[in-house]
Amino acid sequence: MSKLQEEVARRPISSRSSPWAIRLSKYLAQAGVTANSISLLSIVFAVIGGALIAFTIHPITWFCAAACVQMRLICNLLDGMVAIEGGKKTPGGPLYNEFPDRICDTLFLVPVGYAVGYPWLGWLCALLAALTAYIRVFGGSLGLAQDFSGIMAKQRRMAVLTAGLVVQCVETWLVGSHWSLLVALAIITIGSLVTCVTRTISISRVLAGRSGPE
Fold it and tell me: What are the TM regions of this chain, as residue ranges (predicted)?
């Protein structure tokens, strides 16, 4: 894959140019830490965060779960930087780049459904989150630029979840209900559905433009 193709296939992340991210990724690369191991570490944070969401009710645990969400995102940022900028690419890199993300989404979103009393909504949310990625990668398999757009792309899903968990921390302390997480889960579910639709329409339009007039 050429340098241009690599950049097109990468999710645009503004924090990739942040001084702290550049310094940390350089340190990890020089220390011999592989990009694939960082990708796998994101699953560890997802397991911890999902367990905190599913099995605990103390206000502080919601905050800790929110921290796990952010640590997962940091891993997602650093694995690509170590691989590309740090020169640690491997043939299996694309596999490690995609599969842990799908696992992490599921490990975070499904437990939220159980925590708020609507398991089916958690599973539906996780399915739609995975479908947004499938549509993106499917477009890439057709030779199109991967479409990272949408109102509920990964960073926005995790931002909504983080906000829901932080607010839930306060709500649990004050009244003990779970409306904050339920609202966050509903927003992610609906937003993911809309993202699936808009990405599919975008792919369809590009393909129709390629075919030209009959």
Answer: 33-57, 117-137, 158-175, 181-201
| Residue pLDDT tens, the chain, 214 long | 444 444 445 666 767 778 888 898 889 988 888 999 999 999 999 999 999 999 887 889 999 999 999 999 999 999 888 888 777 788 888 888 889 999 999 999 999 999 999 999 999 999 999 999 999 999 999 989 888 889 999 999 999 999 999 999 999 999 988 999 999 999 999 999 999 999 999 999 999 887 655 4
Give the pTM: 0.89
CA torsion angle 41 45 48 50 (round to 10): -120
- Return the H-helix or E-strand segment holding 82: helix 59-84
Cβ atoms of residues 165 and 182 within 8 Å: no
- Four-point Cα dihedral 92, 94, 100, 102, nearest 10: -140
As a whole number of angstroms, the distance between CA 113 and CA 93 comes to 31
27: containing domain = 3-211
Domain count, the chain: 1
